[in-house]
Specification:
The structure holds 2 protein chains of 2 kinds. Helices cover 74% and strands 0% of the residues of chain A. Chain A is mainly alpha-helical. The two termini of chain B are 32 Å apart. In chain B, the strands form 2 sheets. Chain B has a 6-stranded mixed sheet with strand order 6-7-8-3-9-10, with helices on both faces. In chain B, strands 2-1-4-5 form a 4-stranded antiparallel sheet, covered by helices on one side. Chain B is built from 8 helices and 10 strands. Chain B is globular and about 50 Å long. The interface between A and B is medium-sized, with 21 and 23 residues.
Chain lengths: 291, 261
Amino acid sequence: MSFPKPAFTPSEPIAVDLREPPPGPFAGLARRASATAAAVLPPALTLLIILVVWQLLCGDSYEGLPSPSRIWSESRELIVDPFFDRGGVDKGLFWHILTSLRRVALGFSISAVCGVLLGVLIGANRWAHRGLDPIFQVLRTVPPLAWLPISLAAFHEANPSALFVIFVTSIWPIIINTAVGVRNIPEDYVNVARVLRLSPAEYVFKILLPATTPYIFTGLRIGVGMSWLAIVASEMLLGGVGVGFFIWDQYNASRISDIVVALAWVGLTGFFLDRIVALAGRIVSRGSALS
Amino acid sequence: MAKAYLSIEGVGVTFQKGASKSEVLRDIDLQVDQGEFVSLIGHSGCGKSTLLNVVAGLIPATTGAVILDREAVEAPGPERAVVFQNHSLLPWLSVQENVRLAVDKVFAGKKSAAERRDWTLHNLDLVKMTQARDKRPSEISGGMKQRVGIARVLAMQPKVLLLDEPFGALDALTRAHLQDSVMEIQTALRNTVLMITHDVDEAVLLSDRIVMMTNGPRATIGDILAVDLARPRDRLAVAGNPTYVGTRASVIEFLYARRAA
């Protein structure tokens, strides 16, 4: 089996600068340096302490959890070069993560669109709310992996099944938050719309969506986190490719060190996904909508 | 009988929630002439806001009708523009965009885009908010927000301006400032205005007539008082004027001495 190479570069989503530009050349630089240090040093120090304690606890034993030094010696290639590709499933973690990310991007996009539409519907229409909300409240508690057998039975293939699991996992928080946002639109804005005689379409685009944006993005943030949880778990069962499969494959090969490295990648990717959605929310609501 | 410009005829409002009914307003009759500035004053909870919302069309009258310029009021519309107590500007739009939204809606097809832009700026200029036109509501003070709210309403060129305690949430100095602005604008434009207030001085200073409402429930108009002061009025000059002092005393007398009746 071979897989097409992705077209975009890895650093793209990560390189977004979240901080404001400094006001002056030198004063700003110093302030920014100290702010960066204040943000980076504490977690770096904590990480160091964890690694030291971990090393002391696990030592050099070959049983159970490998120590940091053993992970380094056993999985150095995996850590240093995430981009190697020797065909089949023998490739760097970057490619596995990328495959999983593509699935999440597709599944999550579908659930974002459907979730916002359904959320607006049950937020704006009392009968839709009464009819659908109890069902959604029950369905949203179903764990992601419980959907997998059903979706495999329905789609027969791994890829659409994975997409469906992502969709069905991440849609609930989007629906529920959007609906709450729509129901919480201040009476004043509604009155303004009524006095201006805005048409339903104008109301949706000029009042409803901007007023609901912070809620929608809260839902999207929770949703993207959940879909990342779902994809890693479902790939373990579906096999083929993706970071979830990689972890399962390494477990079967008893390469626990590789799993630890993969977990670090999974965690960091999830973190950046969350940050990207949060940043998008801030840009879209232009930092001004009530929050 | 010659009909007044704005005519409130036998309006009563009863809210019904389940089995419990509460009659808020009863038998309100009020005629307002074109260009007249009328204040509604009364204790909290007497239904002043309800009456204003009926005129705006936001709340339907249970009995009676509101007739504006020979047309019955049935739904909200831009010819009866409201300045809400808490400004109700849209926080995701700039000052200019907030006014522009109303201008675009009211003058769609009647004015070109350039004319609508100029008209927006003209109205911001009236309330002295041209400087802050690109700011967002969260970046300006309460008094400035209320100014923008007034500009938005003026820009709609309504037949009647409805002000729901427009200065209620402001400090005394800002309030005086805004009252002066409103008087200036009123002198220039001669709008028909219906304003709710708690403030006796504000009512006497700004109004041609003061409508005093009895306490709710089942509130109605207790008395109507004409304010016989020449315009333009000056806050300082008017303060010692016997008519001003007399009118003020009658309103206070109504609100505090006759409230039991």
